[in-house]
Amino acid sequence: MTAQEVAALVGGEVAGESGVRILRPAKIEEAVAGDLTFLANPRYEKFVATTTASAILVSRAFDTRQHSRAGLTFILVADPYVSFLQILKHLSPQTDPFVPGVDETAVVADSAILGPGVALGAHVVVGRDVRIGTNTKVGPGCVLGDGAALGEDCQIFPNVTIYHGCRLGNRVIVHAGTVIGSDGFGFAPKPDGTYEKIPQMGIVLLEDDVELGANCTIDRATMGQTVIKRGAKLDNLVHVAHNVTVGEHTVIAAQTGISGSTKVGNNVMLGGQVGIVGHIEIADRSVIMAQSGISKSTQAGKSYFGTPAKEHMRALKIEAIIRSLPELAKDVEELKKLLEALKNDRAAR
Question: Annotated catalytic sites, by residue?
């Protein structure tokens, strides 16, 4: 493709040589002649001066005149990252990893209902009264418990387990090894020091366009539903406990754990290894930085960091003071010595 053709594909504008040939995409720090790259994070702006890429996708607000030089073409777009993803999809069309039809080794209960175009891989087990919507594809080794329901155009990758009664909407993607609907962690302490298991009678509901990464665990509700709402995206190794609600278009990075009955709002961003206690509310548009521990409800649109988490800027100020504690301790010791010397001097007089 030429730079002009790339620009037309993403609704961009060329600043430089519109006819330059683009052979492949690349990261900005590694790009060479013939490569198309992008600048979305300001931390990588330093590479604009050194890259030998043929073209760079940049924001319309980027000052191309400051970085203009022979052999480098800029393509101005609204969002360089999103535009780069569009180009990647155009250059590398996705191949379907699922084999059409129902494999001869699949075990399907007589009462299960399979819609048109459903694909079941090798050794899939489909329980009684399961319903699978049109064009949904289930990879090898998956188990769908009795009464589970999957909507249309879902993709269930190998070795996923969906327990009895759980429901998935349309266009849900679940990656390998994930377990949906395992028992919530509910045990009542007894006088003799042992625990009585609390029956987990609810289900899990995944709404339309949810995507779960590999090896996630979504616990069924004690009663009612554990809900992942429309458009939410979970990374690998995320745990969602019983009766949690995850709001629409919320994104959760790897190794995050959400305790029972917590409500996570819409458009929330949770970084990696975040831990959230139970029975609180994470307000809409909250941003929780990686490795933070959330012990109380948050306010809408604010960022939090640390354990226990505090508003981001306050947490950074506290962290800066903590890092300077050795120097402060030294200053305190010197002041104590000065005070002691003054006391001794007065006593001597």
Answer: 242
